[in-house]
Amino acid sequence: MGTLAATVAATSTKSSSSSFTFILLIALVFIGFYFLMIRPQRRRQQQVAQQQKTVSPGARVRTTAGMYATVIATDGDDVILEVAPGVEVRYLKRAIMEVIAPGDENEVAEDDTSYADDEPEDVEDHEDAGSEEEHDSSRDDDLATSDKD
Description:
Layout: H1 2-53, E1 60-63, E2 68-75, E3 78-84, E4 87-92, E5 96-100, H2 105-113, H3 123-148
């Protein structure tokens, strides 16, 4: 009987230590998520908010919609952006994703011209497609005549 009590006491100690270990591991996972994901995201949000507050006329910006523009004026929570010469639009400051540094503008211009380097499609591909269409239409004509019979 004494050995039964000792066995029960030993089992309860093992289960309580394993549940404590499980709770400790879960806590460590949440702490890891905080330092690896949540904290850096908050830091980026604070930097974006700071850039939005300090945006000034003449700065190049990119909106959350991906449009590049130049700030013409600021008016409270609004900014007036020039998206093309003579085209001005009004946005909320919150719509500004980032202020582009003067050195980064060259990279944006290079990205815009990359489409000019694309080569036209091969003419042979179109000719092959045309011969297939002719072959399909002759087959359709054969089917139409067989239906009449």
